[in-house]
Write a structure and sequence with these properties.
By secondary structure, the chain is an alpha/beta fold. It has a domain of 55 residues. Helix content is 29%, strand content 24%. The chain has 7 helices and 10 strands. Helix 6 links the parallel strand 7 and strand 8. Helix 4 crosses helix 5. The protein is globular. The structure holds adenosine-5'-triphosphate. The site of adenosine-5'-triphosphate has 12 residues, from strand 2 and helix 1. One of its GO terms (cellular component) is plasma membrane. One of its GO terms (molecular function) is transmembrane transporter activity. This is Cell division ATP-binding protein FtsE. Belongs to the ABC transporter superfamily. Keywords: ATP-binding, Cell cycle, Cell division, Cell membrane, Membrane, Nucleotide-binding, Transport.
Length: 241
């Protein structure tokens, strides 16, 4: 399932999403995402950021309109092809929690086990990923003894183990202190520099401001693309003289 780099990897055309027949969350949303793009997804609480990410992951279906991912119209995609598509998408969602009875290693390895990949083909990758997120020393620890930031980083490693082309992260810095939040974001930016497209839904405007990446702003059911926020020019002492 290769995609043409000149084509969008995600494309929403006139997408409506209505819950319970009355709550209009998306109202004719149009947007696209290209290979290797980085986008923050911002908007007021309840605007529909999580819902939008779930549409991309095909965890929800639109009420109307079309969602294409890696060139496939999701509404026309046979159910048995979904796992192959999802393998190309790494997700860090609040509700995809780590499993407490598994170690950090086993949690990160889980997507590969589910896909039926032999341990010989993922063991080194799992160890490398856990080292990359700074958790080589916690590889055998279970989530119950990990801090919030450590758990977030295990979840990030798990999202990356299938070498996805696209990462969807929903408030990945939500439960961690600002230093850890910045570290997680730097890891995502580094991945993006290596060619992975990344969408990060966040309320943390400090991060959005600091990292200077383009912003998808979701408001009133519509998505608009904004340029990175630039710092205000600093007043230069004596400049007026
Ligand atoms: N499965 C569902 N069934 C019914 N309503 C839902 C469902 N999921 C979300 N909603 C509603 O849809 C709206 C958008 O929710 P969503 O979680 O997508 O927003 P959000 O922008 O991610 O919010 P937040 O920033 O607070 O996390 C909210 O009003 C929410 O209550």
């Amino acid at each position: 399932m290769q995609s043409d780099p000149s084509q969008p990897i995600v494309s929403f055309d006139d997408v409506h999403l209505t819950y319970d027949g009355e709550r209009d969350v998306l109202r004719g949303t149009r947007m696209s995402l290209g290979t290797g793009d980085f986008r923050f997804l911002t908007g007021p609480s309840g605007a529909g950021k999580t819902s939008l990410l779930k549409l991309i992951y095909a965890a929800h279906r639109p009420t109307s309109g079309s969602v294409e991912v890696f060139g496939h119209d999701l509404s026309a995609m046979p159910a048995d092809e979904m796992p192959k598509l999802r393998r190309r998408i790494g997700v860090v969602f609040q509700e995809f929690r780590l499993l407490d009875h598994l170690t950090a290693f086993e949690n990160v390895a889980l997507p590969m086990r589910v896909l039926g990949v032999s341990p010989n083909n993922y063991r080194d990758d799992v160890v490398e990923l856990l080292s990359w997120v700074g958790l080589a020393h916690r590889i055998d620890a279970q989530p119950t003894v990990l801090s919030g930031g450590e758990k977030q980083r295990v979840a990030l490693a798990r999202a990356l183990v299938s070498k996805p082309d696209l990462i969807l992260a929903d408030e990945p810095t939500g439960n961690v202190d600002p230093v850890m939040g910045e570290k997680i974001m730097r890891l995502l930016l580094e991945l993006n520099r290596l060619g992975t497209a990344v969408v990060v839904a966040t309320h943390d405007l400090g991060l959005v401001r600091g990292l200077k990446q383009p912003i998808l702003r979701l408001k009133d059911g519509q998505v608009n693309l904004h340029a990175p926020i630039q710092d205000e020019p600093q007043a230069v002492a004596g400049a007026a003289q």
